[in-house]
Write a structure and sequence with these properties.
InterPro entries: PH-like_dom_sf (IPR011993), PH_domain (IPR001849), Rho-GAP (IPR050729), Rho_GTPase_activation_prot (IPR008936), RhoGAP_dom (IPR000198). This protein has about 375 residues and is an alpha+beta fold. It contains 16 helices and 8 strands.
Amino acid sequence: MFHSMLQTLLKGEYLNKAKIAEGGKKLRKNWTATWVVLCSNQLLFFKESKQEAVANLKPGGKSDGVDLCGAVIEWTTEKSSRKNVIQITTPNGHEFLLQADHFPTISKWHDAIKKTVDSLVMFSDSIVPVSPLIPRTVFKLNYSASDSADKNGVKNRLKKFISRRPSMKTLQEKGLIKDRVFGCHMLTLCERERTTVPKFVKLCVEEVEKRGLEADGLYRVSGNLAVIQKLRFLVDQEEELNLGDSQWEDIHVITGALKMFFRELPEPLFPFRFFDLFVEAVKIREPTQKGQALKKLIHQVPKPNHNTMKVLFQHLRRVLMKSQKNLMSTQGISIVFGPTLMWPEFESGNMEVNMVYQNQIVESILIECVEIFGPGGM
C-alpha cells in the first residue's frame, strides 16, 4: 500500500494553496506553496520538500489533507484576485483554494480532482443504502485460519447471502429506493416526470423569483454545502419539498443546489454534439447574424433541453433586471453559468479558450434572450 501511495506522490506537484473556511467559519486567506498529492479519495498537502513528503507518507508521518467524498470543485474568480484558481468545498464546510501560474497546470488538476470526486459519487450510489424498510441480515463468522473446510463454509455462506440480497431494480420496483434526480439524464428525468422542464428546476426558479432576486451576489455567492447536500438528498428521495421552509431560508442554498443539478447532468444542458456548433456560432462578429445562428441551434436541441433553457435564461434575465440590488452583471452571470451549462464531451485543445467561448455563448444568449425565446413569462 505504501508503494502505491509513493507512486501517487511522485505524480504530485507544487501548487499555491489557501484554506479559506473551516467548518463553515471563514478564515483569513493565506497563500502558501504546497506539495499537493491526489490519492484515491483525498488530496494530501505537504509543506516540506518532495523528498520529505515521501518520508511522511510512511506510518506515523504527518500530512494535511482533504477528504474528497461529497466535495464540490469549481472554478472561481471571486475568491481571489489571482488567475487560474479552483475552489474545493467539502460537506463539513471546509473550503480550499488551489492556484497555479500556468492555466494548463491547474486545469489538469481540476480535471483529475473532478474525476476523483465523480468516481466517489458513483461508488457511493452503486451501494444499496440501508433503509429501515429493508431487513438487515447479520451473521457471525467463527472459524480457524487453519481450517480449510471451515473457510469453504464461510465462502458458501457469503455467496448465499449475496445471492439473496435484493437487486437495485427489485428495490426500485418495490418503491424502497427511488430513481435519482441529481445525475439523471435530462431526457430520462423529464420522461419520468412527464414534463419538459425538470420539476426541481421550476421549483428553484419560482422560489428565487419569489424572495431572492435582490440578494447580493445571487448565483455567484456559494451557499452552505452541507445544507445544499441535505436538499439534494431530499430531492433524490422525492420527499415532499417546500423551498419556502425556514431550513432553506438562505437563498444561496437554493441557487447552489440548482447549479449543482446542472453540473451533475451526465450530458450538459447544451448537448455534447452541439458544443462545437455553438462555439462556431458565437465567433460570428455581426450581432444579428450571431443571434440568428444561436437561435437556430437552440431550436434544434431536444425539447426538454430547449424548454429548460427557455425557463432558465428568462429567469436569469429577470435576475439582471435587479442588477442594481444584486450586483450581478451579464458578464458575472456568464462566468458562473458558462462551464455549468456546457462542456465538450472530450477535453481537447486549449481548455482556457473553451472557457472563454462557454462564457461568451451564455452572455450572447442572455443579450438575445427575447429574440431567441420570446417575451418572458413563467
